[in-house]
Amino acid sequence: MAGVTGEAGIGVLIVDDDPLVRAGLSMMLGGAPDIRVVGEAGDGAEVPALVDRHSPDVVLMDIRMPRVDGLTATEALRARPRAPEVIVLTTFDADRHVLRALRAGAAGFLLKDTPPEEIVAAVRHVAQGRPVLSPEVMRRLMARVADSDQDRRRERARARIALLNDRERDVAVAVGQGRSNAEIGAVLHLAVPTVKTHVSNILTKLDLNNRVQIALLVHDAGLLDEEEG
Questions:
Q1: Which residue among 12, 54, 116, 173 sits deepest, i.e. has the most Cβ atoms within 10 Å of its Cβ?
Q2: 1 lies in a domain?
């Protein structure tokens, strides 16, 4: 995870097959004093070389591209050591393919018509290791998961959750509910630094990238249904 930026600001790589979209995003982000666009790509195939060359903190990744799509590029990128954070760009707020990107370790997604100030804020949040995905969007995305392998996925998820102790499990469920660290602390009567430690331990134990993946695993395990029931 990138997470920490240098004095030159947050380096961003823009990946989209539409030159106009790239130009618009570059102009928008270039106006922020703490963000610099380090490169642009028109296809996912170009991403590895550009990441090696420019070491961006954040990659804005389109989904639909002609040769290597954004989902495949995200999976390959996030599998690398010290990978930059990825924000998926999409024209659909309920695109089922976004879920695949989140499972691969993307830090969230943005609609291409998101207001400029929100895109800038999202880049800043993600660069700080804070995923950009509202609980409402998370619920809509998870609702679109096909039921064909639900039982098998639930078994796998529960086996991984079993690696956590009781308090870590409680924290994981609260993350799945979309709660912030402060909200988790209030509900579980924990100090915020303690919550952060638990979240960090969960990520390490379960070999996950971020809070979004914790939430997806909790959902797959059926723990949110148990809490509501």
A1: 12
A2: no
